[in-house]
């Protein structure tokens, strides 16, 4: 068989690309070793484990080109792989649910800062309800669980180098609560220059020129860092079998006894190693990852993996009807097995950033849910929307601070006085972005029980005893469904705010 000029050119290009890849990896190795030389012995030992994980990610980054999915191979998951929550709940609970709880660990992802809401320090320390922080509410929930069922469910916080010190200081106040709290740190990876593909760090320090040189590599790092910390083995030795993982800012992510019982009641040969809680997609969730069937595996599909020609199709609420809440139930023995076999398969998220000085860098990250395809008998459970109550913005904060929700033992539930099942759509303007500014603009949090839709723009403040509600007569008897947009530069009085939709 004769080779054409095109074949020879492709071969030469492939050889060139392979040499270039090897060159990049060798240069990266040298740079990382030089960074480790600036650390003390203890720090170098921890960082070497981090760098081992980073080098694996970097190696895959250099090899993978183009979209990570073939759109023609995507199928909807079979019905039995996405179970409705009501079917799980219909099984009821056994008399000895405490036995199951004794095999559970609650893990909260606590690596994020509150900077997007104008706060310094860990986001988990922002007050969200009755002076309670995200962390306060989490501890209250688990303490209530432990007291109610006479059990000992531990709380594990996955911190980052950004949140670890401040979090550990605050944990002292929970020493008399009936909750055993453990922490471990996710890895610290070096940001790399977009052009040279080399670390921008000049040493292992976090201050000065290195302030922007490091990043926590996404929550997909939980598997490696949990394993490396030794905490995974410790919990397995205690007889723990499952972790319930969720974002600490999702106030709907409480321990669900029915899902736990479902996991524990399956025969050993069909034991489910991974459950992802999904919920029905609305227009507000069109960018959320969804579950698909791909090459005979259940797989998480994120918008970043979708070819540009199919993005609108991905956002469709008719074709892809569910999205990932990031509430996950994962087998501890399975994590250990996959880590030891180096078989945890997660797509790389390439996150480009521009630093304050204008330098373009790349962060290589992974998502915890992307590992679903590596686990045996994985499935999704389509849960009620109430299990997805994230607080990402001041608009979300207004909702959870209002009388829409009742607080009991750290858990928020929709008020029984609200007639509608859906949560109001609230959009506050840029004047409300920072929590301190947000709080100054409300003398009291308004009554929102009858609210459907609220948009506020400009320099607006709210007085006392404000009620936001549907008023069908406000714009004539026929217009019962309108959106009232508050205009700027005046203080809203009680009589102004009898209408909204």
Automatic annotation (TrEMBL):
<comment type="pathway">
    <text>Glycan biosynthesis; glycogen biosynthesis.</text>
</comment>
<feature type="binding site">
    <location>
        <position position="186"/>
    </location>
    <ligand>
        <name>UTP</name>
    </ligand>
</feature>
<feature type="binding site">
    <location>
        <position position="392"/>
    </location>
    <ligand>
        <name>UTP</name>
    </ligand>
</feature>
<comment type="subunit">
    <text>Homooctamer.</text>
</comment>
<feature type="binding site">
    <location>
        <position position="123"/>
    </location>
    <ligand>
        <name>UTP</name>
    </ligand>
</feature>
<feature type="binding site">
    <location>
        <position position="249"/>
    </location>
    <ligand>
        <name>UTP</name>
    </ligand>
</feature>
<feature type="binding site">
    <location>
        <position position="218"/>
    </location>
    <ligand>
        <name>UTP</name>
    </ligand>
</feature>
<dbReference type="InterPro" id="IPR029044">
    <property type="entry name" value="Nucleotide-diphossugar_trans"/>
</dbReference>
<dbReference type="GO" id="GO:0005978">
    <property type="term" value="P:glycogen biosynthetic process"/>
</dbReference>
<protein>
    <recommendedName>
        <fullName>UTP--glucose-1-phosphate uridylyltransferase</fullName>
        <ecNumber>2.7.7.9</ecNumber>
    </recommendedName>
</protein>
<keyword id="KW-0808">Transferase</keyword>
<comment type="function">
    <text>UTP--glucose-1-phosphate uridylyltransferase catalyzing the conversion of glucose-1-phosphate into UDP-glucose, a crucial precursor for the production of glycogen.</text>
</comment>
<feature type="binding site">
    <location>
        <position position="219"/>
    </location>
    <ligand>
        <name>substrate</name>
    </ligand>
</feature>
<dbReference type="InterPro" id="IPR002618">
    <property type="entry name" value="UDPGP_fam"/>
</dbReference>
<dbReference type="Pfam" id="PF01704">
    <property type="entry name" value="UDPGP"/>
</dbReference>
<dbReference type="GO" id="GO:0003983">
    <property type="term" value="F:UTP:glucose-1-phosphate uridylyltransferase activity"/>
</dbReference>
<dbReference type="InterPro" id="IPR016267">
    <property type="entry name" value="UDPGP_trans"/>
</dbReference>
<comment type="similarity">
    <text>Belongs to the UDPGP type 1 family.</text>
</comment>
<keyword id="KW-0548">Nucleotidyltransferase</keyword>
<dbReference type="GO" id="GO:0006011">
    <property type="term" value="P:UDP-alpha-D-glucose metabolic process"/>
</dbReference>
């Amino acid at each position: 068989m004769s080779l054409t000029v095109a074949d020879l050119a492709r071969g030469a290009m492939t050889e060139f690309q392979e040499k270039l890849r090897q060159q990049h990896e060798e240069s990266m190795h040298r740079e990382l070793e030089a960074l480790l030389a600036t650390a003390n012995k203890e720090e170098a030992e921890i960082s070497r484990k981090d760098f081992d994980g980073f080098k694996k990610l970097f190696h895959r980054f250099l090899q993978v080109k183009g979209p990570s999915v073939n759109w023609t191979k995507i199928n909807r998951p079979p019905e039995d792989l996405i179970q409705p929550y009501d079917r799980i709940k219909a099984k009821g609970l056994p008399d000895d649910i405490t036995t199951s709880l004794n095999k559970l660990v609650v893990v909260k992802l606590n690596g994020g800062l509150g900077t997007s809401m104008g706060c310094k320090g860990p986001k988990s320390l922002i007050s969200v309800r009755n002076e309670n922080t995200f962390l306060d509410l989490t501890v209250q929930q688990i303490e209530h669980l432990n007291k109610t069922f006479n059990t000992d469910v531990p709380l594990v916080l996955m911190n980052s180098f950004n949140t670890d010190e401040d979090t550990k200081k605050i944990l002292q106040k929970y020493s008399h609560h009936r909750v055993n709290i453990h922490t471990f740190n996710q890895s610290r990876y070096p940001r790399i220059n977009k052009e040279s593909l080399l670390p921008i760090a000049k040493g292992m320090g976090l201050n000065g020129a290195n302030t922007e040189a490091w990043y926590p590599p996404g929550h997909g790092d939980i598997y490696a860092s949990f394993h490396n910390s030794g905490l995974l083995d410790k919990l397995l030795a205690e007889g723990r079998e499952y972790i319930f993982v969720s974002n600490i800012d999702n106030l709907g992510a409480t321990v669900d006894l029915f899902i736990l019982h479902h996991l524990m009641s399956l025969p050993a040969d069909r034991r489910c190693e991974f459950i992802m809680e999904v919920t029905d997609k609305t227009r507000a969730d069109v960018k959320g990852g969804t579950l698909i069937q791909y090459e005979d595996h259940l797989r998480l599909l994120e918008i970043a993996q979708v070819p540009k020609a199919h993005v609108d199709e991905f956002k469709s609420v008719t074709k892809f009807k569910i999205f990932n809440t990031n509430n996950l139930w994962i087998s501890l023995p399975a994590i250990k097995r996959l880590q030891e076999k180096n078989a945890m398969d997660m797509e790389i998220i390439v996150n480009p950033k521009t630093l304050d000085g204008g330098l373009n860098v790349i962060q290589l990250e992974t998502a915890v849910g992307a590992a679903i395809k590596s686990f045996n008998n994985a499935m999704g459970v389509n849960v009620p929307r109430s299990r997805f109550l994230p607080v990402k913005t001041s608009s979300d904060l207004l909702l959870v601070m209002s009388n829409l929700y009742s607080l009991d033992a750290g858990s928020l539930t929709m008020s029984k006085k609200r007639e509608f099942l859906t949560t109001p759509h609230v959009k506050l303007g840029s004047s409300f972005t920072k929590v301190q500014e947000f709080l100054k603009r409300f003398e009291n949090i308004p009554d929102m029980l009858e609210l459907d839709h609220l948009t506020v723009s400009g320099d607006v403040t709210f007085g006392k005893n404000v009620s936001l509600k549907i008023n069908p007569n406000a714009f004539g008897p026929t217009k019962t469904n309108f959106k009232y947009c508050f205009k700027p530069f005046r203080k809203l009085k009680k009589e102004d705010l009898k209408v909204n939709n």
